[in-house]
Amino acid sequence: MFKYSYNSLVYYGENISDSIKRVAGCGYDAIELYGEPDALDTKEVRKLCEEHNIGVSSICSLYTDERDLASPDPSVRKNAVTYIKQVADLAAGVVCPVMIIAPTACMKLKGWKDPDEERKWAVEGMQEGGEYANSVGVGITIEAWNRYETYFLNRLEQCLEFMRELDLENVGVMGDTFHMNIDEVSIADAYRQAGKHLTHVHLADSNRAAPGKGHLDFMPILKALKDIDYQGHLAFELLPGSADPFGTLAKGGGREYFDEYTKLAIENIKSIEKEL
Ligand code: LER
Ligand code: MN
To answer: Number of structural domains, the chain?
Structure first.
């Protein structure tokens, strides 16, 4: 039996109590929180989760230009490490096992002139952040993003290579089917190759809508996850089909991603899980 979670990122601007209530009401085991430590009160989140009998599966860290482990600017790199530590504290405070981590800012499409130097910075920052996360009992999981969101890690095999450069016991990799649909040869094979190192999963259809609303075939994907005995959560990370999804949400668009898709996503994937 898979464990299910829904990423609160898409409930843009909503009160966390409404988000937790909706996710629990739709039968999820857990919620994935967006990684803005200052915007969340850990005691309140814990209380709400206890009340609604769900857990926090994961924290979706938000890597902006000011939170870039691979930046040539040492103050930006320092800020990124501080951010990782703050997210780790948030995770520990809400009893969450794993936080997502990435070596660069999201939407940064060009690297530093010296790739070796840049990689060294990214490894150093992730090592420091990962050690801190370990000290507060939190795992880190490295996410690959598609080529239109980063130039750095686009496929799981690259995340595994990066992971092996770290000296950490609490590190794994994760695959998001939206990104994988663009940059992997086979989503199922990439999950199989990650095997025991796969510590988190984001599910979305080809267009980042709820599974069933795009053209991905989830049967071989779920079969691969079952075959590798994946023990983490399946977290739906859905966002409106727009170059600026948060702008769309801020203007009141994407309402189907709230009640309708929260319900539909778990229903559709559970119906495939039954057939495995
Ligand atoms: C985060 O999980 C992700 O997949 C990226 O697209 C950044 O939002
Ligand atoms: Mn993702």
So the answer is: 1
Tokens of 183: 């940059």
Which residues constitute the domain of residue 192? 3-275
Q: Which of 143, 151, 181 to mutate to test the pocket of ligand 1 (most atoms within 8 A of CB)?
A: 143
| pLDDT by residue, tens only, the chain of 276 residues | 999 999 999 999 999 999 999 999 999 999 999 999 999 999 999 999 999 999 999 999 999 999 999 999 999 999 999 999 999 999 999 999 999 999 999 999 999 999 999 999 999 999 999 999 999 999 999 999 999 999 999 999 999 999 999 999 999 999 999 999 999 999 999 999 999 999 999 999 999 999 999 999 999 999 999 999 999 999 999 999 999 999 999 999 999 999 999 999 999 999 999 999
**3-state SS class at 58:** strand
Q: Is 62 in the pocket of ligand 1 (CB under 6 A)?
A: no
Residue with CA nearest ligand 1 atom 2: 60
Q: Is 237 in the pocket of ligand 1 (CB under 6 A)?
A: yes
Cβ neighbors of 213 (< 8 A, separation 6 or more) are 205, 207, 261, 264
Query: What CATH number has the domain bearing residue 11?
Result: 3.20.20.150
